[in-house]
Each structure stands twice: as C-alpha cells, then as structure tokens.
Amino acid sequence: MGFNCGIVGLPNVGKSTLFNALTETSSANAENYPFCTIEPNIGRVALVDNRLDELAQINNPKQVIPTFIDFVDIAGLVQGASKGEGLGNQFLANIREVDAICHVIRCFDDNDITHVNNKIDPLDDIEIIETELMLSDLESLSKRITSIEKKAKGGDKESKVTMELMKQIIIKLENGIPAREIEFSKENFIIVKQLNLLTIKPVLFVANVDENASVKGNTYSQQLTEFGLSKGIKTITLSAKLESEISEIADKEERKEFLNAMNLKESGLEKLSKAGYGLLDLITYFTAGPKEVRAWTIKKGTIAKEAAGKIHNDFSRGFIAAETIAFEDYVTIGGEQQARENGYVRTEGKEYVVIDGDIIVFRFNV
After folding, report:
1. Core-most of 15, 143, 331, 349, by most CB within 10 Å?
2. Rounded to an integer, what distance in angstroms lies between the CA atom of residue 3 and that of residue 44?
C-alpha cells in the first residue's frame, strides 16, 4: 500500500529543486523556465523516526527498515491549465493520482529567477492553482452528472445520493469553495472520495524561502502561514536551495553539524516527510527482533487484523492475536523478553485499533 504526495505549484517556485533535495538525487531537471518537468518524477523518501534507532540499540538487528513516503514532482501549472494551457491536462491528471498535495509557494525575491506572473505574491499564486483545480473538478462533475441523474430517475438509490452530493459540490465550487472545505457525513464522504476530485485531497503549504529566512521565515511565509491557519492547512517553511546543499552532505554527523551551524533543529526533509505523514493521517507500528527492526505504515484507525495484512496476507487470513507492547514500555524495560517477564505484553484481538508506536508480534495459523 503506497502513500504519495504530489509536489505542485506554479513554474519556477522551486518544486524540482526541493524534490531533488528530498530524494537526494538530481533526477528532476531544475531549470529556469516553465515545464522543465515533462513527466512526473517519483521519489521514495524514508521517514526520519528516532524510535527506530532506540529499537535498534536494544535488538542489535541485522537490518533496520524505515517507513517511506513517496513524493511526486509534478510540472508547474499555469493559469488556464484546466483548459489545456501549458501542459495542463496532463498534469491535472497526474495530480488526480496522488493521495495528497504539497503546494510549493515561492516566498523569496530573486531577479535572476523569473516568476510566471512577474510578481511575488503567495496568496495570488495559491488562488491561481486552487482556481484551476476547482475548474477541473467542475468540468469533471458536469460531464458525469447527466448519466448519474438518469440512474437516479430510474430508481437507483445510491445514484440519487451521489447526484445530490454532486449538485452540492458544484454549487460550492462555483462560489470558489473547494470540496475539502465542505462538511460531509462519514457515509457521504466515502461516496465523495469515489468522485476522485482534485479539491477533496488534503493540502500542505510549503513556503520556499531564501537561505537567510530558513529559520524564522519572512514576510511572505508569515502571510502564507496565517492564510493556511484560516483554511486549516499546515504550512512548512524551508529553503529548497539550502536543502539542496544539505542533501549533498553524505555523512550524518557532518550534516548535523551543518544544521546546528544554520540554527536548524531538523532538515526540511524531516519536517516535510513528517508533515506529509500527518497530512495523510498515517501512523507507525513496529516489529522488532535480532533479524530485523522495521517500521510499518498504516492509516490511523486501522485494526490489528488489517495491520497484520501489511506484513503478509497470511498474517491477516489466519490471524489469531496481536501481542502488543507500548513503545515507551518496550524501551524502558529493555526489550521484548523483559516486557514478557514483567507483564507489559497485551494480547489483543483482531478488532484492536493499533496505536502509533506499538511493537507487535502477530500470531497466526494458516
């Protein structure tokens, strides 16, 4: 089960530079002109999780496997993308395939890097992208609603509910309100998700500032952060240029020293991967032993039987129990054996909702 965030934004805002830094590659061609990214670049980034290090110290395993999140570098959208301007249709289709959107917004001045609209205005940039996504959703819904109406008139109850939801969304979109800002019941949200709308996807703002503003941000990023708060959207502030420099430092200790010298607590990679993880409503559980310490990604609210299926279908099909230890107990007591001897192991059934940080041993029989 893969999870991915599409990196989107106007041309020349630093998307490809950020992608290269995140994935520590130069696979995305970063150039000072629009549409330099012709195909979406996909990079898998390990989520930095210090808990893995603690588990590794206790178990001294042969290998340590982190959890990952995929970032997809999607070419710059421009005004009119929903009508095919630039390479709009292709890129809108690429956005439709991702789970969430990381919207990179230019928050720096640089006369040597052209802005597609010849001005630095984060809120205007957001409006352009959001408008194109809403127009695309409107077009998609308008094309489909006629066939849904026919089914609804024919007595199909599910089509009737879908039709009413589509009409509700169309009205909101026409008034400049994206689907993610509409309140739906749990049941209706499941139906809306199946419409595969662009504006229903969760969004994260990434304020790309210059190197000097990487710690405290600047006027542009502060404006963006305040706007994000008003919309319930988290904003990450970083310098793609600086992240590119950090990514070139291979040695972990040297990288830490560099971050300390820049007064940065963590790299943009760490901030963005954690934020992307949270954006997708994901949590981590662990398996730990002398052979392997491994992190597993699941959606918050996943039950034990489904979590077991992440490892292997047989674990889910023949599920018996999940022997679970809370992370803090595991680390404090010194490992699985000590946890068993001191009564810290809980035996949970298939309906147990896995908690972030659980260390689990699945018992199964097939």
Report:
1. 15
2. 10
Q: Of 255, 276, 280, 278, which Cα lies nearest the Cα of 104? A: 276
Q: For the chain, how long is the longest CA-to-CA vector?
A: 68
116-126 residue pLDDT tens: 666 789 999 99
On the question of pLDDT at 76 being above 70, the answer is: no
Are 240 and 19 in contact by the 8 Å Cβ rule? The answer is no
Q: Where are the beta strands (DSSP E) in 66-223?
A: 68-73, 100-106, 203-208
CB 339 within 8 A of CB 325: yes
The DSSP annotation for 213-235 comes to: GTTT--HHHHHHHHHHHHHT--E
Residue 203 corresponds to which amino acid? V
- Give the other-Cβ count within 10 Å of 55's Cβ: 24
293/307 Cα distance (integer angstroms): 16
Work out the number of other CB atoms within 10 angstroms of the CB of residue 261. 8
- Only one residue has tokens 């190197």, namely 211
Pairing of strands 41-46, 68-73: antiparallel
Distance CA 336, CA 218 (A): 48
Q: 75-89, 155-169, 243-257: which range is least confident on average?
A: 75-89
**How many Å apart are CA 49 and CA 225, to the nearest integer?**
26
- According to DSSP, residue 39 is labeled S
Tell me the pLDDT tens digit for each residue of 254-285: 888 998 998 888 888 788 888 888 888 899 99
pTM score: 0.82
- For 62, 322, 329, the CA distances from 350, given in Å and listed in that order, are 30, 7, 22
Q: What angle do CA 304, 307, 313 make, to 5 degrees?
A: 110
Indicate the pairing of strand 68-73 with strand 282-288: unpaired
- Half-sphere exposure at residue 215, Cβ-oriented, CA atoms within 13 angstroms: 8
Residue 87 CA, chain-centre distance (Å), reads 24
One DSSP character per residue, 121-145 reads: -HHHHHHHHHHHHHHHHHHHHHHHH
